[in-house]
Amino acid sequence: MWTRTKNQWLTKNVSSKQPGFYIQGKGKRNISATEESNLCHSGSKTRFVFVCLGEFEARYVEEHQLGEGGCGAVFAGYRIEDLTQIMYNIVMAVSVQHLNQFYITGLNAAFLIIHFWFDLGKELILVLERPVPAVDLQKYKAENGRTLPEDKAKVILKQLVDAAKELEDKNIFHRDIKGENILIETGSDVPRVRIIDFGLSCFVKQRSLYRVFYGTPLHTPPEWYRRSCYRCGPTTVWQMGVVLYEAVHARDFDTERFLSKKLTIKKRLSTKCRNFLEACLTKVPEKRPTLEELQMGQLKIKSKFCFLGVPVTPPAIPGKGISL
User: Fold this and answer.
1) What separation in angstroms does the CA of 229 have from each of 173, 214, 226, 234, 253?
2) Are 87 and 76 in contact (CB under 8 A)?
3) Which residues contact 72 (CB under 8 A, 6 or more apart)?
4) Per-residue model confidence (pLDDT) at position 84
5) 150 near 202, Cβ under 8 Å?
6) Angle at CA of residue 204, ends 161 and 68, nearest 5°
7) Confidence of residue 108 (pLDDT cuts 50, 70, 90)
8) 12-129: what fold?
9) C-alpha torsion 103→105→109→115, nearest 10
10) Do the beta carbons of residue 50 and residue 61 sit within 8 Å?
11) Which reaction does it catalyse (predicted)?
12) What average pLDDT does the segment 242-256 reach?
């Protein structure tokens, strides 16, 4: 299990650095907790980089661990001043420069708002909004009888494809979109999707080719086995298929078992759903639809691949902030 202590956070001597300031351009000054709260709720694009662990502990209280992954762990907590619920991610070996690039992309509501980060040298503490109530897609599926009805899966997939297309437009490759990295807000009649865990993500150039695989091994796209390389767009479309497959089947997806036909698409599913899965899970990456085709429903044979149907508008969130 991933654990940490206060001493493990202090990976380099940061005690001599000025606590509690933010950086905006080249300026720096102290910031009060009240100003922090006001700026968070106003959607300001002011950049906050704290460099002292004590400043974090003075502002926030840790409650319990929510999860962990290969790049760090996520904890629940709240802000002391107004009891606002937050979660924070302790990330290993991520540069502030990389985080700054995400910060300025201006992503929208399908991504968690990042309020502040604390640079502790080899580690970062990212203070994020915490949607409540919310569970990851795997737990959401378990709470709904191990499989989702197609109409509910369609609502989730439509939002997910829209979010993945936005990432692609910003030249961001998540690389590990899966049930555990998809939060479902359950506080309204329509489930709202949030993509989380950008620990393996990277920025891409047009036609970038990758020869080292990062992601979930069971979800590896077929081209990795056949060509020892993969690309952003076709891989993300493959992951859309994997997410939908696991949503409507009471089993986990495994690429090798799927390619060897030990995993199959259930015949009980509607023709539209089956066709959507077959399109996304096509072995040859060049024959898969693009995210734009999935998003707009403008596929080569419209009558065959219209599972997502008309756009789904998720419930609005009051206010905007800095998005990751």
Assistant:
1) 15, 11, 8, 11, 21
2) yes
3) 2, 89, 90, 91, 92, 123, 199
4) 87
5) no
6) 65
7) low
8) Phosphorylase Kinase; domain 1 (3.30.200)
9) 10
10) no
11) L-seryl-[protein] + ATP = O-phospho-L-seryl-[protein] + ADP + H(+); L-threonyl-[protein] + ATP = O-phospho-L-threonyl-[protein] + ADP + H(+)
12) 97
